Amino acid sequence: MTLRVSALRFERDPFTLGPLDLEAQGGRMVVLIGPSGGGKTTLLRLLAGLEAPNAGTVTLGDTLFSGPSVFVPAAERHVGFVFQGLALWPHMNALAQVRFAGRSRKKDATELLLRAGLPAALHKRLPGELSGGEAQRLAIARALAGRPRLLLLDEPLRSVDPHLRDGLQRTLRALAHEGEHPTICVTHDREEALVLADDLIVMAEGRILERGQASELCRKPKHAFTARFLLRAGILPLQGLGTKRGCPLGSFSVPEWVKGEAALALLPGDLKLSQPSQGSGTNKAVLVPVLDRHFDERGWLLEVDLKGQALSVLLQPNEPIPDPGMQVRIQLSRPPLVVQTNGESA
User: Fold this and answer.
1) Dist. CA 241–CA 244, nearest whole Å
2) pLDDT exceeds cutoff 60 at 344
3) Tell me, what's the pLDDT at 265?
């Protein structure tokens, strides 16, 4: 079963969502990632029928959920929804919640709770007696109890302790891949998105900026926002027009798909310290101040300021570690990514 969204638009002053298009295949998980306030939860509510769009269509399989003169109420869409706040019924134990949601037998509800990773010893507990991760598993089981045609997850790991997330991520992926229903998950956590996503959609300010397989977006993002959000890249604008544009680090070819403004997306390993005699032409050495330094699993990182842009430089083993306030020379150590900085990517 396939979910298709076409030219969907929603307006509530001062926020506008869309118009946007997307497609989600059954048995796959689509992850919407982006900052808070970008429209991800609003999109889920439109898909669930909790909000009515101003324009566009939403179709699941052969059923038109919303379109010109058509709006199927939420209760008739057979959509499972795990809300940010979970919205569990405080007076019902775990087993009763799943049985009620699915109008199911005790045996079926028990099996579903176990599939969601909630042990039998917890099935008689109330939501207030469960940990954050346990309550999350109950919410997922309850959403699946009605055998939904579409599963929507809004920040499904938000209340889960970091050391428990790996197990719940595996559970979510397994449940998404088992059924014929599409699964759409919202998050603003890049690590979570990369683990869960079969297909990744990057959203900001009510628009889709970029979409594709997670591995491809991490390898070759086309939009500056994607590179910054997923890869923590520093963005250095390129000046000029046409296929050749420049910046203090040199001159660079701009791909044909870039429409309008372009920039370099610079990862820490893209930059290195250089000597005064190094760097010229298309790979210039530039003198910059050190803003800060810190150590992580990759080694020592310097944060430097280049024309008002904060960039990271990964030091080589045994290189001296400059203090904040010192001046250092930097240059490219490998060809950088060129990305688009305005509009929707191709």
Assistant:
1) 7
2) no
3) 95
Q: Count the domains in the chain.
A: 2
Answer whether 332's CB lies under 8 Å from 273's CB.
no
In which residue are the tokens 């940990």 written?
131
SS3 338: strand
Q: Quick check: is 345 in a domain?
A: no
> In this model, does residue 151 exceed pLDDT 80?
yes
How is residue 254 written in tokens? 């701009």
DSSP 195-213: HH-SEEEEEETTEEEEEE-
Q: What is the CATH number of the domain that holds 267?
A: 2.40.50.140
The model's pTM = 0.83
Distances (CA, A) of 321 to 152, 266, 270, 311, 334: 48, 20, 18, 16, 21
Q: Are the C-beta atoms of 22 and 30 separated by less than 8 Å? A: yes
Count how many residues are written for the chain: 346
Report pLDDT digits (tens) over 216-226: 898 889 999 99
Q: Residue 151 sits in which domain range?
A: 2-221
Amino acid 137: pLDDT: 87
Which residues 6+ apart lie within 8 Å of 8 measured at CB?
A: 17, 18, 19, 20, 21, 43, 46, 53, 55, 56, 57, 58
C-beta neighbour count of 63 within 10 angstroms: 13
In contact, 80 and 90? CB cutoff 8 Å: no
* Shared domain check, 10 and 95: yes
Looking up tokens 């330094």 gives 293
What does DSSP assign to residue 128? G
Look-up of token digits 């302790």: 161
Last residue of a domain, one of 221, 239, 265: 221
Task: Please classify residue 244 by burial: count the beta carbons closer than 10 Å to its beta carbon, then call 0-12 exposed, 13-18 middle and 19+ buried.
Answer: exposed
